[in-house]
Amino acid sequence: MPENVSYAPHVITPDQKTTIEATIRRQLIDPDSAKFEDLVARKVISPNGIGYQVCGHVNSKNRFGGYVGRTPFAGAFSPGQPDKFIVNAGPDQQFAGA
């Protein structure tokens, strides 16, 4: 654990959930087919402010119309940017095969 950083449980707010899902959907072949599960978050308290780390799973359809299976994702709301969810890997890496 980095110095001067602490963590606390966090319940994802409805606005955060909407932002997370919209961000992930923009990276999918069939965004309307997305099914989200197991969203978990924690508050990150650092000298830079308070941010949130989030992980979960998404299942969506591929180009052939079949569901690809639960795909993990992770990302964060950085301090000072509470309305912007940043996925930790690029769309080619995060949703390869989707």
Defining key terms:
98 residues, alpha+beta, five-stranded antiparallel beta sheet, 5 strands, 16% helix, disordered C terminus
Characterization of the model:
The chain is an alpha+beta fold and 98 residues long. Helices cover 16% and strands 39% of the residues. Strand 4 and strand 5 form a beta hairpin. The longest helix has 12 residues, at 14-25. It has helices at residues 14-25, 91-94, and strands spanning 6-10, 35-46, 49-59, 71-77, 85-87. Mean pLDDT is 88; it is low at 90-98. The chain has two helices and five strands, in the order βαββββα. Strands 1-2-3-4-5 form a five-stranded antiparallel sheet, with helices on one face.
Sheet having the most strands: 5 strands, antiparallel
Count of alpha and pi helical runs? 2
Order of helices and strands: EHEEEEH
Structural class: alpha+beta
Mean pLDDT: 88
Compute the number of strand runs: 5
- Determine the fraction of residues in helical runs and give it as a percent range: 10-25%
Shape: elongated
Low confidence ranges: 90-98
- Fraction of residues in β-strands: 35-45%
Strand order in space, largest sheet: 1-2-3-4-5
Give me the Rg, rounded: 14 Å
How far do the termini sit from each other? 33 Å
